[in-house]
Task: inverse folding
């Protein structure tokens, strides 16, 4: 499996869900912005609009701010 990247836009939760599966928490809104959290295996990381979620070859997730 090749590394996959997806930028969170605030409106593409369905795509994020397909990429991350059950390791993503539903988005929440704060001060007009949408955020969500993903489980990287080392704990939950907040994903803000414009951040890129990376699915590594080994199945792990990370976030590029």
Result:
């Amino acid at each position: 499996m090749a590394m996959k990247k997806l930028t969170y836009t605030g409106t593409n939760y369905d795509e994020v869900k397909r990429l991350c599966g059950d390791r993503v928490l539903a988005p929440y809104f704060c001060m007009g912005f949408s955020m969500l959290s993903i489980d990287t295996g080392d704990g939950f990381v907040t994903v803000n609009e414009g951040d890129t979620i990376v699915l590594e070859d080994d199945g792990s997730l990370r976030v590029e701010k």
